[in-house]
Amino acid sequence: MIITIGRQHGSNGYLIAKGLADRLGYFCMGKEIVDRAAEDSNFNKAILASYDEKRISPYFSNSLHYMGMAEGFRLSTQMASAQFDAIRSLADEGNVVFVGRCADYVLRNRPDLLRVFIVAPLEKRIQTLMERKQLSEDQARRLVKQVDKDRSSYYKYYTDQIWSEINNYDLCINSALTGIEGAIDVIEGVARRMENK
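^ that's the sequence the OP posted. Answer follows.
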């Protein structure tokens, strides 16, 4: 069984994914996907991590060199492909909860896939980030909007799909209504039904 969790920033999507994986005895893979991609490819982990779930500019540069548009596009596609290959490889190894990184799209043809998207009202997400990261309201608002914009852009760029489009998911949950444990309960219930089919 493979479960993918897409999430708005501040909706507690990672905590829900981690709690779900712990409860089901699954692996939880978020940033670990970057680790695996670095192991299986020639990319430096720091470079992969710095562009994780962000649309990469066609003008790729770092402290060592500058690349123009064609090279930047080629490199960004190769880095995304390394992550997508890691997702496929990890999915083949057993029961996994994937967090973000287009996993729902990459694994879309698997019959054992449950695709979930976690949402929450903007003000609730801002409050969550203010408490979790000790940010001002303005800082939290800017962060929520920037991270969601990055994720949406990354998803659109590599899948040609709309990140928050409900038809791309099997289940959408408002974590402000359910809470973390309630969201885990709902997803677990659906996953167990699917396992028993």
